[in-house]
Amino acid sequence: MGRLDGKRALVTGAGSGIGAAIAAALAAEGAALTLVGRGLGRLEETAAVLGGATTAVCDVTDEAAVERLVGLVGPIDLLVNNAGAAESAPLARTELALWRRMLDSNATGAFLLCRTFAPSMVERGTGRIVNIASTAGERGYAYVAAYCAGKHAVVGLTRALALELAATGVTVNAVSPGYTETPLLERAVEGIVASTGRDYEAARTALLRDNAMGRFVRPEEIASAVAWLCEPAQAAVTGRTITVAGAEVV
């Protein structure tokens, strides 16, 4: 028997990386999954690895698309807002469009999914919402002001909704990964190489300078924290941000 048997879960950004690992962890505990993302091919690949899951293509920053999603999926018990994006630029070269993309991708999407799916959880008196934030939602990093702002917004949203829903049986928490071995990390390394002229290994080392463990986080480590927060036994854990980052933030 899995700890999430009979639970219906929706995971955004589920086509690869952390999202795919979260989907696998929830499936291993018995949850029935809906995988959401912008690319059907990657979602179907993840579903095949899991042995089956519902897939839905959706731009989570599009209000109308999210409203259509609830009609397709129906009520859920577990919502994991993992979809996000990261772009970097010095302040002087941070265009308004980049700023808006980072807030929309990392915060507005989570807000829209929470607003859409939380009411049915409240009606049933039970539910789990887990927002994937970042250490960039807990501290600052140079050259990613827009990304930091978006992830700080995720943490703030989590805390506010936890208080608003505290008496309803619905918990709201966040998990903040440090640098994690995903395609997003590879793009960050490539960006450092392109902008600084460092070689690949030097760029990876630069990203590890604040990690006391001296290694990058593994996606399954993030997924384990998410699965724990989704368990029925964690009914009193709400409004918290669990940092999984090798002591990058202490």
What does this 3D model show about the protein?
- By secondary structure, this protein is of the alpha/beta class.
- The chain is built from 8 helices and 7 strands.
- Strands 3-2-1-4-5-6-7 form a 7-stranded parallel β-sheet, sandwiched between helices.
- The model has no long low-confidence stretch (mean pLDDT 94).
With strands numbered from the N-terminus, the spatial order across the biggest sheet is: 3-2-1-4-5-6-7
Could you state the order of secondary-structure elements as H and E?
EHEHEHEHEHEHHHE
Largest sheet: 7 strands, parallel
Question: What is the rounded Rg?
Answer: 17 Å
Determine the structural class based on helices, strands and strand pairing: alpha/beta
* Global morphology: globular
Count the strands? 7
Strand content: 5-15%
Percent of residues in helices comes to 40-55%
Whole-Å distance between the termini? Answer: 36 Å
| Helix run count | 8
Task: Please supply descriptive tags for the structure shown above.
alpha/beta; 250 residues
Summarize this entry quickly:
It contains eight helices and seven strands, in the order βαβαβαβαβαβαααβ. It has 250 residues and is an alpha/beta fold. The N and C termini lie far apart (36 Å).
Topology summary:
Blueprint: E1 8-12, H1 17-28, E2 32-37, H2 40-50, E3 54-57, H3 63-73, E4 78-81, H4 96-124, E5 127-132, H5 145-165, E6 170-177, H6 183-196, H7 200-207, H8 219-230, E7 241-244
Helix pairs in contact: 1-8, 3-4, 4-5, 6-7
